[in-house]
Amino acid sequence: MTHGVSRLLLLAMVVLCCAALPACKSAPKAEAPVTTPPAFQTPAPAEKVDETTGFQEAQPASEQVRESPASLAEKLNAQGVLEAVYFDFDKYDLRSDAIKTLGDDAAQIRKYGQFRVRVEGHCDERGTVEYNLALGEKRARAARDYLVSVGTPASRLSIISFGKERPVDPGHTEEAWGRNRRAELIFLAE
Amino acid sequence: MSRSRMPLTLCSFIAAALAPLAIAARQDAPPPAGAAPQATPAPGAPASDLNIRIVGAARQKIPIALPEFTVTAGDATMKDVARTIRDVVRDDLDFSGSFTIVPEEYHKLVRDGGDKRVNFKEWLGVGADSLLVGQAGTDAAGLVVEAKLYDTTGQKMVLGKRYRGTGDQQRLIAHRLSNEIIQLYSGQAGVALSRIAFVSQVGKAKEIFVMDYDGARVKRVTAFNTISLSPAWSPDGREIAFTSYRGGTPRLMILSSAGDFHEAAFQQGEELNSAPAWSPDGSLLAFASSRDGNAEIYTLRPADRSLTRVTRNEAIDTSPAWSPNGREMAFTSDRSGTPQIYIMGSEGNNVRRLSFEVSYCDAPSWSPQGDKIAFTARVPGGFDIYVKDLATGELTRVTENSNINEWPRWSPDGRHLAFASNRTGNFDIYTVDADGSNLRRLTHGGNNSSPSWSR
User: Fold this and answer.
1) Which residues of B touch A30 (CB under 8 A)?
2) Residue A171 maps to a domain
3) Buried-most residue among A61, A135, B254, B365 (CB within 10 A)?
4) ipTM of the complex
5) Which residue range forms the structural domain that includes residue A119?
């Protein structure tokens, strides 16, 4: 539809411009091998070039204030108290090793009952951004659902997917991909 | 581009005159002078008095010569400005697929026709069925560019244009001129003024950038210092929808050309909201959301903030891509066990699977003509771009190089695809014709992905 409109506009501009150019008035004689082309003195009202849809240059955000001092939650996260679980390529069902790990994680979550826990789903670099976002969320949800099934209150758990945006290993090998296909569990400080 | 058809000497004038008779101008008068555009031409009506048009697969390329633009007035930089404009027009015409460019070394074989005369026969003799002559200069008001397009077989001017602009609009002026020429010869709107939005890594963040379709004039348009993904142009080119983690969770945002931004107009919480795609008339924004617990496709009507759920399946459904008439969508789903491309009515009816040939297919893009769907497929060693013809079912492999080639997006004229590839080691944005020819790299360095081609 817009395509048609812009085509009409273009047509109109061609017609308008040619109409305004005296250059067009005298058609060169067909038989003349060398004709006198019209000179460049074009009195036509020139087309104003205006970039109406130009996007504004963005200014970098000012430096953010650093987050609060390390809390217990951050310490626990840094120590890896909650272990990540890993997935096969393009899969979001829990492997047996993941189920064992999540059992240990559930105990830790019980122990530190003052914190909420966020389950983050991640993918390897293969496949496109959007599919991996959905896949990462499926992984986070699978881990969250298992924790709930073994007694973790759902109200303490949230999920988020980072797709393939936050690899722990920047490599392009099977080993790197295997480390990146994961669900991480994070104690939330607040 | 094949240059083998070009005659090497003036002696081949006759052969040249006969062989590439791609255009034959009628001998009647050019458009009536002084006549205001009275009746609006019907869409699809010829844009010029050229009586042979470039259509379909058998389309013949027009050999065109573009001698350097002359400088009328201005300071020392005008020579560069004039050259830039000529070069941009030449590259636009070459890219369009409708023209072959007469090599520059043939220009000097053409003798000057005398004061302000065009030596039509000799231009024709070096193979130029068409000739663009231009000049650039400045006056008190700024940059002035004039150009005349000659049909050398008919020995007449077929287009005369005059543009005014500021000094930094030289590329814009060149692209406008290119589109006029492309429209005149092909009857199709050119893509020279279109732009490509994409994602680029800045430090640890990913930001949205915009550039001209040829990779020039790159501009960063977000500075959120977080993850921004999946830009999608609105059909009028005034808005870009994308996914942002700015609020902590992935939400749909709308960035306007004026620089302001807001969340898409529906209640967004902790769930995943991603993969925006505007309907062709701009009235609906399709996207993938897990707001009901699983990645499904929805449409939002921003005008009344109404939200409609389109898919109902416990598998992943994402990456909606509208058909040009807005009645259908292609999308990615793993309901068969691996991601595949499906098509459905825009209300979720009549779902059928499109891709069967490869076990992993993703990221569909529906051609503006409606006849093809491009997508990414996983192949041994990487991912490649494929195009499926909807009428014949024929599958064309567009890329083939043991790397990741993903995220194809059609140009407005349906001839080209933008995509991301890591074939050099880093991800960059490329364009390629739908048959795999005419590959061009648009970005150089960094980590660039997810192109969206404006209409």
Assistant:
1) 27, 154-156
2) yes
3) A135
4) 0.83
5) 82-188
